[in-house]
Amino acid sequence: MASSVSLHILANYYLAAYCGVSFKLKESNIKNLLLGGILCIPFLAHGNITSSIGYARFDGEYGQINSFVASLGYELGGKQFTVIPEIKYGPGSMGSEGGIELKQYISLSVKGKYQYQNGIYLFLYPSYSKFTFEQTSRYVASTYTLSETSSEFGIGTGVGYEFTPSFSVEASFEKIDGNDPISFGLRYKF
After folding, report:
1. Closest by alpha carbon to 134, among 125, 142, 143?
2. Contact by Cβ (8 Å): 106, 126
3. pLDDT level of residue 25 (50, 70, 90 thresholds)
4. Residue 134, SS3?
5. What's the rounded mean pLDDT across residues 72-85?
6. Helix, strand, coil in percent for the chain, rounding step 5
7. 93, 127, 164, 174: which has the fewest Cβ within 10 Å?
8. CA neighbor of 58 nearest in space, from 112, 168, 132, 108
C-alpha cells in the first residue's frame, strides 16, 4: 500500500509539472504540491501509471552503445487514443565500442498512443533527451577521462502488443541528433 501511495504522489508531482505549476525549494513546497495535485485531479480520474524496463542500443557518432533503460509515465485518455507523459532513464552502458561509455541517459517525452486492434498499438512521440558520454584513455602511467554532455530534441515511433490490459511489450526507434536509440521493453500498467 505504501508503494502505491508513493507512486501516486510521484505521478501527481510529475503531472503538476506538465500542468504548469512551478516548484520552488522554499516553505511553499507543500502548497505547490497540493495545488498541483488539485489541478490534475481531473486527469488522475481516468489514467494509469505505467512503467517499463528494457534494453536500448544507441547507434550514432560514438559507435554502438548498449544500455538498460527504465521509464515511468502516466497514461491519460480513452480506449482508442491515449496520451502518455513519460520520463525514461538509462543509468549507463552495458558495453560499447572504442572505449566510449554512456554514463547517463534521461529523456522526457509525451507519447500519443493509438490502440489498433487485437492488442496491437502504435505510438509517436516528441522527446527531449540528455546524454552524458565518457571516454577513459591510458597513456604511460597516466589516465585521462573526457566527458561530454549533450541535450537534444528528437522524435520517436514504435509498436507494442498488449498480452493483458496491464502487460505489454514494445519496440521503438528514436531519431535524436547523432544518437539514435532503438529499444525493446516490457511495460506494466498499475
Report:
1. 143
2. no
3. very low
4. strand
5. 90
6. 15, 65, 20
7. 164
8. 132
